[in-house]
Amino acid sequence: MARRYKAMCRAGVLQVVANISPVALGESDWIVRVRTRPDAVLGTAQALARRPDVSWVSVNAGGSEIVCSVRSHTQEEREHLLLDRLPRSAAVLDLTLSVILRRFVGGKATDLVAEPGVLTPEQAEQLAVERQVPRYASIPVVESLDPGDYAMFRVLARDGRAPVGALARAAQVSEGRAGRRLDTLLGSGVVYLHVDLSTTALGYPIAAHLWLTVPPDRLESTCEAIAEHPEALFVAAISGRSNVLAWIACRSLDGLYQYVTERIGLLESVHSVEVSPVLQTLKQSGTHVDGDLLTVHK
């Protein structure tokens, strides 16, 4: 199993990375839609992807829209990007900001793109209970992380399975202290691990963002229903005219059509849906994308 995991990482199929929850720092996650001049969309997307506080960068729709997630560690960093740099850019024609109100993550093997039956029910259950990650609402707010925490995080952001010895050297502490601090950060939800996947390499080359409009009293149940779909890699309640965002991966355009008409279409609570196909993904949670494969920037 370990050899297979390392081979998939070297092949650019998957990468485990660590993230700091902005909620723990008293901040928030934002979804940003940037409409640019067609000749500037790729350069703008690449510039956003290079920022450590920007993730899930993709070029969507007709090739002139960028969708990304901004999770700055301070209010000043976030405001500088969203209220100063982007609006002042001559390439940016329009900017739409939505705050993530709640993420809906399942903690089960079926939340990832996979064929049914790959894991037995017992194996899926073991993965689900291995580490219970707190909901955002229960993550403690810390005033700040110390320099040693950030030093360990920079290592984990490149490799979420980095050995404790590497974390200890980065933070200049003993392995025992580094291990205990890591357990505290992970157990509280301040730091969480994410698996970035090349869905194209796994046979799911078609991705799209679905922007849904749902009545407030049906928001929770609708998000929970969509989160159970194996095609849904990300589901969140957000602010704005569209109050649900889902990131979907399918095997074909016909599969995407069937998902929208047969899965989403059966949800009576969904009043409207905008389908925004992903033309190119430049960055996932913490891993850059080169073509169809994942790359780690040192």
UniProtKB/TrEMBL annotation:
<keyword id="KW-0238">DNA-binding</keyword>
<dbReference type="GO" id="GO:0043200">
    <property type="term" value="P:response to amino acid"/>
</dbReference>
<protein>
    <submittedName>
        <fullName>DNA-binding transcriptional regulator, Lrp family</fullName>
    </submittedName>
</protein>
<dbReference type="InterPro" id="IPR036388">
    <property type="entry name" value="WH-like_DNA-bd_sf"/>
</dbReference>
<dbReference type="InterPro" id="IPR036390">
    <property type="entry name" value="WH_DNA-bd_sf"/>
</dbReference>
<dbReference type="InterPro" id="IPR019888">
    <property type="entry name" value="Tscrpt_reg_AsnC-like"/>
</dbReference>
<dbReference type="Pfam" id="PF22482">
    <property type="entry name" value="AsnC_trans_reg_3"/>
</dbReference>
<dbReference type="GO" id="GO:0043565">
    <property type="term" value="F:sequence-specific DNA binding"/>
</dbReference>
<feature type="domain" description="Transcriptional regulatory protein PF0864-like C-terminal">
    <location>
        <begin position="219"/>
        <end position="285"/>
    </location>
</feature>
<dbReference type="InterPro" id="IPR054609">
    <property type="entry name" value="PF0864-like_C"/>
</dbReference>
<dbReference type="InterPro" id="IPR011008">
    <property type="entry name" value="Dimeric_a/b-barrel"/>
</dbReference>
<dbReference type="GO" id="GO:0005829">
    <property type="term" value="C:cytosol"/>
</dbReference>
